[in-house]
């Protein structure tokens, strides 16, 4: 009985009122047997049903014919039999039956056999088989007309031995499970006449009407979702005279059976009447069908959950593999056996990656001729580092190179930048140095805006510091280390403004006494000694030459090579020489000093710079002597400008250098900045 939505509450209230009145007046329980030749069960609490097998009445009043256990059968009969004929040997009278039922299957798409409404001479079905026999027959009596069974099957399994049409059908059975007629479950819409499929195992309550017209000898069966009124057009309609089938005294009952799978067959309400329509069912009177979720959630959920979980885990694994591979690629390093000895100096790329936050541009300290330098913070030791990424192509030299830089890493001096370690990747060498908070000296000398100018005392300390660092490299240690790239940008200033000689990436190591022949020319134009350009031969004296240029640079505040307006290149050395010749040596002093300097020290620095950058290596002092002069431990030799000029070449080193570069014998040259 459909109840329009807005009137529903009102209707239900009235209904309740009448129900209560009805109960009080007529019935002691919710179960009712109305008069003779008919009955109606609105739920089954306290009913006198005859049940057997798995059938039972649940506490809420729901009749459960089977639960979800496999291979079960259950029966329920109205306890008193009916006489469906007026007298023996006459035809069977009209009768109607109606059921509100629900089938709950643990599986979304699989039922388990089914249930039947039946009219039979007996309630003893102990011989009947479960499963496809639906608790009705056994192999012996099936199909035997003498069993006098009329049934309407609600079948959820396709049993080909009984020629079932599908696994979701309603059929009319006479003494047999081979239906006389059957149709897929569904109903015809009243207004449109269209057919709507219904799934018997949907877990929704449905109503079935079985009507036998004794006059017309016609059986009609209709099905509809519960709460929908009976469709005008029945699902099944079959002309048949049940007089030959139904016994004189017949029981009206229900049967259900499960097969390999199990499903619960529930009856909410059941009515029967002879010679008249069945009384309607009211929603409020009937017990509730358990939700599919309550009974079947675990098993129902599995088929849904499993694919989701599988898909999710496949996705997660793929993601994990992807991330792992990406991570491996991102942090990939080159490690070879020979590196084991350098173990303590080896940094993992991952640590450096995190220290520099992925080599962020905001961490970039500067870019040199060989690569970029980043500032980093090692999370473990909370130590600030400078990370220099040097790209290299040749794999042959790398072993010697690493050996060198690691042994250089053992050098300790207050005027050199400590190399902390290295890391190696494909085509890339990463060097890790102490971080110098004040950066490189060239920024103080040439950058006007950011840094205050260094005063003379600081500059002279820096010159002494660099000299001391270079002396340590050249002699104090057990090996001669030639720096090979002494210049202002490789002099870094620590927190106390001490000069620290950095960048040993280009340096080569030589044992004392061995030939100091080198194969590659490296260095920066402007700092290259002429013999180095000519013969590619690096020696401590080529470092002294570069140191001399550096001293002049710091004292005069000018670059070693200045580009003049008329595109002539002016060498700083030549200019200082010229001034000295003209007797105005101190005019070369950096104007930013504003004449605040110690004249003696300034003269010493300028002359020392000139002497160190003498064209002839033999004329240059060693670093040991340089230290002596600077500390006034040794008087600086009296020199005239003429002593310097003698060997000065007409060719400028730059011109020479360029000619050599075009011959392809110089590698690793970087333009002075
Ligand atoms: N240990 C360090 N601490 C702080 N800053 C550094 C450190 N090492 C390098 N830098 C900064 O990084 C910049 C680039 O250094 P890099 O050594 O790559 O270039 P360069 O010295 O100018 O030339 P070259 O490649 O010939 O050495 C430097 O100018 C300096 O400012
Ligand atoms: C059903 O019977 C029990 C006792 O057997 C009784 O307590 C209960 O009230 C009855 N219920 C109804 C609806 O009559
Ligand atoms: C089904 O009912 C039978 C008895 O009728 C019982 O033994 C079995 O445990 C029940 N199964 C479930 C799943 O409730
Ligand atoms: C009923 O019909 C059978 C044969 O169909 C007959 O043998 C029998 O006598 C009849 N009984 C009565 C009471 O008419
Ligand atoms: C049911 O029928 C079987 C034989 O078919 C019989 O053995 C059994 O006793 C009967 N049960 C009842 C309660 O009559
Ligand atoms: C049908 O059943 C009756 C009694 O139960 C029996 O005598 C008869 O032989 C059966 N017929 C067949 C074809 O099995
Ligand atoms: C009903 O179900 C059958 C198969 O069982 C299908 O062929 C038919 O198209 C369905 N009809 C509608 C209206 O869904
Ligand atoms: C269908 O129509 C009949 C009469 O025409 C009516 O009694 C019945 O309630 C209708 N059913 C629906 C579902 O509308
Ligand atoms: Mg450098």
Automatic annotation (TrEMBL):
It is an enzyme of class 2 (transferase). InterPro entries: ConA-like_dom_sf, Kinase-like_dom_sf, L-type_Lectin-RKs, Legume_lectin_dom, Prot_kinase_dom, Protein_kinase_ATP_BS, Ser/Thr_kinase_AS. GO terms for molecular function: ATP binding; carbohydrate binding; protein serine/threonine kinase activity. The chain crosses the membrane at residues 301-325. Its EC number is 2.7.11.1. It is a single-pass type I membrane protein. It comes from the Eukaryota. Its main location: membrane. It is found in: Cell membrane. One of its GO terms (cellular component) is plasma membrane. Residues 1-33 form the signal peptide. ATP binds at residue 388. Residues 359-635 form the Protein kinase domain. Keywords: ATP-binding, Cell membrane, Glycoprotein, Kinase, Lectin, Membrane, Nucleotide-binding, Receptor, Serine/threonine-protein kinase, Signal, Transferase, Transmembrane, Transmembrane helix. GO terms for biological process: negative regulation of response to salt stress. It catalyses: L-seryl-[protein] + ATP = O-phospho-L-seryl-[protein] + ADP + H(+); L-threonyl-[protein] + ATP = O-phospho-L-threonyl-[protein] + ADP + H(+). In the N-terminal section; belongs to the leguminous lectin family. In the C-terminal section; belongs to the protein kinase superfamily. Ser/Thr protein kinase family. PANTHER family: PTHR27007. This is non-specific serine/threonine protein kinase.
């Amino acid at each position: 009985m459909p109840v329009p939505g807005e009137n529903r509450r009102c209707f239900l209230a009235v209904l309740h009122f009448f129900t209560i009145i009805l109960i009080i007046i007529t019935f002691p329980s919710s179960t009712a047997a109305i008069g003779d030749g008919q009955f109606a069960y609105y739920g089954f609490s306290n009913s006198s049903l005859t049940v057997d097998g798995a059938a039972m009445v649940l506490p809420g009043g729901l009749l459960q014919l089977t639960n979800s256990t496999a291979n079960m059968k259950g029966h329920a009969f109205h306890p008193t039999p009916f006489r469906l004929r007026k007298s023996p040997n006459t035809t069977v009278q009209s009768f109607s039956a109606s059921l509100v039922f629900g089938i709950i299957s643990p599986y979304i798409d699989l039922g388990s056999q089914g249930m039947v409404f039946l009219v039979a001479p007996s309630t003893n079905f102990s011989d009947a088989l479960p499963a496809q026999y639906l608790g009705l027959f056994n192999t012996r009596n099936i199909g035997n007309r003498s069993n006098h069974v009329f049934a309407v099957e609600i079948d959820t399994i396709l049993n080909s031995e009984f020629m079932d049409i599908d696994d979701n059908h309603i059929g009319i059975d006479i003494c047999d499970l081979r239906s006389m007629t059957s149709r897929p479950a569904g109903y015809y819409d009243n207004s449109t006449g269209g057919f709507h499929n219904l799934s018997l195992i949907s877990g929704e309550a449905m109503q079935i009407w079985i009507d036998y017209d004794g006059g017309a000898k016609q059986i009609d069966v209709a099905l509809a979702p519960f709460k929908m009124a009976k469709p005008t057009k029945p699902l099944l309609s079959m002309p048949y005279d049940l007089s030959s089938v139904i016994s004189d005294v017949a029981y009206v009952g229900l049967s259900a059976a499960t097969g390999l799978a199990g499903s619960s067959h529930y009856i909410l309400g059941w009515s029967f009447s002879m010679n008249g329509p069945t009384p309607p069912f009211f929603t409020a009177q009937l017990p509730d069908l358990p939700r599919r979720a309550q009974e079947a959630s675990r098993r129902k959920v599995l088929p849904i959950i499993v694919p989701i979980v599988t898909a999710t885990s496949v996705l997660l694994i793929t993601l994990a593999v992807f991330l792992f591979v990406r991570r491996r690629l991102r942090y990939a390093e080159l490690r070879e056996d020979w590196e084991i000895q350098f173990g303590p100096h080896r940094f993992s790329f991952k640590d450096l990656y995190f220290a520099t936050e992925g080599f962020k541009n905001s961490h970039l300290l500067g870019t040199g001729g060989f690569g970029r330098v980043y500032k980093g913070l090692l999370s473990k030791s909370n130590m600030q580092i400078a990370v220099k990424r040097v790209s290299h192509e040749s794999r042959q030299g790398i072993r010697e190179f690493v050996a060198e830089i690691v042994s250089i890493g053992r050098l300790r001096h207050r005027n050199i930048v400590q190399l902390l370690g290295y890391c190696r990747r494909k085509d890339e060498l990463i060097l890790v140095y102490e971080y110098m908070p004040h950066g490189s000296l060239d920024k103080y000398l040439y950058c006007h805006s950011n840094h205050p100018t260094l005063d003379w005392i600081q500059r002279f300390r820096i010159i002494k510091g660099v000299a001391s660092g270079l002396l340590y490299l050249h002699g104090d240690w057990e090996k001669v280390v030639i720096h090979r790239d002494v210049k202002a940008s490789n002099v870094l200033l620590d927190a106390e403004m001490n000069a620290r000689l950095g960048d040993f990436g280009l340096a080569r190591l030589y044992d004392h006494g061995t030939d100091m022949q080198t194969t590659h020319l490296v260095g920066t134009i402007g700092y290259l000694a002429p013999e180095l350009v000519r013969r590619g031969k690096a020696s401590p004296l080529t470092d002294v030459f570069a140191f001399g240029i550096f001293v002049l640079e710091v004292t005069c505040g000018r670059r070693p090579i200045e580009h003049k307006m008329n595109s002539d290149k002016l060498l700083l050395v030549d200019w200082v020489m010229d001034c000295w010749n003209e007797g105005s040596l101190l005019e070369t002093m950096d104007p930013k000093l504003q004449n605040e300097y110690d004249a003696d020290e300034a003269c010493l620095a300028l002359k020392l710079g000139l002497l160190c950058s003498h064209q002839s290596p033999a004329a240059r002092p060693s670093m040991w002597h340089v230290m002596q002069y600077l500390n006034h431990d040794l008087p600086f030799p009296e020199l005239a400008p003429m002593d310097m000029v003698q060997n000065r070449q007409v060719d400028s080193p730059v011109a020479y250098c360029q000619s050599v570069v075009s011959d392809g014998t110089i590698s690793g040259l970087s333009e002075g900045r």
